[in-house]
C-alpha cells in the first residue's frame, strides 16, 4: 500500500505539492491563531492585574478604569512595537538567505511575513483581551462587587483562552486550561496582595 501511495505521488507531483502547500498554509494559520490567543491572554491578565492592584489602594471605579485603559494602550503599543521589530529581524534573515540562494524577487519572497500585519495583529489581540476586565468594571459602583466581577470575568476568559490554545496547539485541554487559570490567578493575587501591603504600610 505504501509503495502504491509513493508511486501515485511520484506520478502526480502536482497533487503532492498541492497537499504540502495546503498543510503548510493550515499550519501557519494555526500558528497565527495561537499567537492571537496568547496575545489576548496577555492583555487580559496584565490589565486585570493592574486594575486589581490599583483597586487594592483606591476603591474608586474611575481609578481602576483609568489604570486599566492606560494599561491597554501601553500594552498594545508595546506588543505592536515588539512584534514589528521581531518580524523585521526575521524577515531580514530570510531575505539574506534568499539573496545567498539567488532567489530574491521570486515567489518565495512574497510568502515572507509582514511586520506591519504582525504588529497590527498583536496589538489587536492584546486589546481584545484587555478590554474584557475594563467592560466588566466600568459600570459597577460597589467596590467589592466590582473586584469580584473583574475576577470572575477574567477567570471565564482565561478558561476559554486556555481551551482554544490547547486545541490549536494540540495539547490536553484540561491541563492547558488549568495552567492558564493558575497563572492568571497567581498574577492577579500577587498584584492585589502586594498593593494591599503597600497601602497598609502607609507609604
UniProtKB/TrEMBL annotation:
The chain crosses the membrane at residues 118-141, 147-168, 180-198. Coiled coil: none annotated. GO terms for molecular function: iron ion sequestering activity; iron ion transmembrane transporter activity; manganese ion transmembrane transporter activity. One of its GO terms (biological process) is intracellular manganese ion homeostasis. It is a multi-pass membrane protein. It is found in: Vacuole membrane. Keywords: Ion transport, Iron, Iron transport, Membrane, Transmembrane, Transmembrane helix, Transport, Vacuole. Residues 1-21 are annotated as: Disordered. Pfam families: VIT1. It catalyses: Fe(2+)(in) = Fe(2+)(out). One of its GO terms (cellular component) is vacuolar membrane. Residues 1-10 have a biased composition (Basic and acidic residues). Vacuolar Fe(2+) uptake transporter. Belongs to the CCC1 family. This is Vacuolar iron transporter.
